[in-house]
């Protein structure tokens, strides 16, 4: 392995370099504005600005090679970038690269296709129009810490389910999707309407739509949110432990 970082200039280059790893491909965002990527040996890093509300440096590959690649490309980036990758990999990197500070652990979940067949039920949901105020109100009540909210950069559209009286009772966003991966965020159900299957029906609708458009579906979820994880697993998503790490003084 030559100790030289090779800059990748297309989404196809990233796919080939990382073996079509879903998280890495998602981070590349089709190599949209501001995104940069490099490889060295089996290591790949992708710098994606303002992705899921953070400047992210997705990392993939053997820890020693990734550590060296991060050290080489870091001067081209800046302190706002946070590493994102498999939890075990980042745990190794903390011991290899001076100045790394663990931030959080959570779960990445994805599926290479639509959900498995389920029973057809009423109120399956649909894409919303001119409903930002309703979505904001629902999230403020049901999920005040949601990272996806109306007006945030990268959110393409919102889906929802309404009660018989027209009240919005469940919502989810198509947010930070890229050509190869549809990404879901902002999933929430009004507390007074939980336990009625709204979340599962709405997620099924959104997952099916994004799988049809992108081939793959992914999201992130807190590790302690076992109810949501169980729902996503029933809909065919597989869990992948990930973490975020800050860089200081590299």
TrEMBL record:
Gene3D superfamilies: 3.40.630.30
Domain of life of the organism encoding this protein: Bacteria
CDD domains per the UniProt record, alphabetical: NAT_SF (cd04301)
Domain N-acetyltransferase: 118-250
Record PROSITE patterns: GNAT
Alphabetized Pfam families for the sequence: Acetyltransf_1 (PF00583)
Alphabetical list of InterPro entries matching this protein: Acyl_CoA_acyltransferase, GNAT_dom
Coiled-coil annotated spans: none
Name of protein: GNAT superfamily N-acetyltransferase
Species whose genome carries this gene: Streptosporangium lutulentum
Source organism phylogeny: Bacteria, Bacillati, Actinomycetota, Actinomycetes, Streptosporangiales
């Amino acid at each position: 392995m030559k100790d030289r970082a090779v800059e990748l200039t297309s989404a196809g280059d990233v796919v080939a370099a990382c073996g079509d790893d879903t998280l890495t491909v998602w981070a590349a965002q089709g190599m949209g504005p501001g995104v940069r990527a490099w490889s060295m040996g089996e290591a790949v890093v992708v710098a994606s600005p303002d992705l899921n509300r953070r400047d992210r440096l997705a990392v993939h590959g053997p820890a020693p090679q990734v550590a060296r690649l991060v050290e080489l490309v870091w001067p081209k980036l800046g302190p706002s970038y946070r590493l994102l990758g498999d939890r075990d990999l980042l745990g190794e990197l903390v011991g290899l690269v001076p100045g790394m500070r663990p931030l959080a652990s959570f779960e990445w979940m994805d599926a290479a296709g639509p959900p498995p067949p389920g029973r057809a039920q009423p109120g399956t949901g649909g894409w919303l129009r001119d409903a930002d105020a309703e979505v904001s109100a629902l999230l403020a009540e049901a999920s005040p810490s949601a990272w996806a909210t109306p007006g945030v950069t990268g959110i393409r559209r919102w889906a929802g389910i309404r009660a018989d009286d027209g009240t919005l009772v469940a919502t989810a966003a198509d947010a930070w999707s890229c050509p190869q991966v549809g990404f879901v965020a902002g999933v929430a159900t009004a507390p007074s309407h939980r336990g009625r299957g709204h979340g599962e029906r709405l997620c099924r609708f959104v997952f099916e739509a994004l799988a049809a458009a992108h081939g793959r579906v992914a999201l992130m979820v807190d590790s302690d949110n076992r109810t949501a994880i169980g729902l996503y697993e029933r809909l065919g998503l597989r869990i992948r432990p990930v973490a975020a790490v800050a860089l200081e003084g590299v």
